[in-house]
Amino acid sequence: MAEPNHAGMTRGVKLPVDDGETYAVSTPTERSAPEVVDRRIEEILQRHHLPPDPLDELPPPPTTFLSGVFRFPWYIQSLTPWLFCSFGLALSLLGVLLSFWLVDNGLTMAAYAMRFSICWVIVFSLSYLSGCFLAIIEGTANGYDEITDWPKGDWRDQFFSLGYPFGMLVLAALVGTAAHWLTLRQSIAVPVVVGVVVYPVLLLSAMESGSVLGFVSRPILRTCVDLWWGWLLVYTLSAAMFAAWLAWALYYFPYEGFFITGLSGPILVTILFIYARLLGRLAWWAQKASDDEDEDE
Description:
This protein is an all-alpha fold. The protein has a domain of about 160 residues. The protein has a two-stranded antiparallel sheet. A hairpin with an 8-residue loop joins β1 and β2.
């Protein structure tokens, strides 16, 4: 075996002592190739089993539901996903509007020929938007201010993530419909309000349990009581944003339909990013409540 270039040199290994800068001196010893490989594997395994650094998960700022919420879509790390989601959603909305416009103008065959292309654009766009939506909630729930773990890889991986946001949306619509029938269908506002109220509870519960079937979670339900003011603030802010967009779109749509539809893409993505940020802060509180409950037990 070839001798090392600095065989005569010694190296210092710092002892794990608290007082002073004490060093022990050792001379390098020759090891066989299997020993070196085994030690290298052991070092890698030890690094992967190290306890998590507390600095990796920092708590949100004191103003939990305001700081870093409305500015979040304009973070440097958020701009690229925001642009992709905005372009995809705008293209999807324009494709749907174009289909209706072609049908209204007697060009039914042209609309029929475009149906597959429009459907694929919608699937791709909503899949990526769903992945970003869930990434924001999960990252914010873990205490991160900047989200870097954005969706990557095959689009089919993101397609299955639609089960959380859209599956819970369907379930919330069913709950709202049931409430509408129980109130003898007196007002159309009843299913809308009920659906809006139960949707974030169902979504966060499913994400907390790790399954779309676990749409009832004790930590999430506990925050509805302990953090009622936070839920009220989230409902108020999200309702105000969606209502403002809806009023603006309905007022100007008769004049500039295609322009308003295309511009609604980035506006809706911005609202959804902020909404996901708010839900992530609620999930952080739910996770904290769950940890406190485990410590009490």
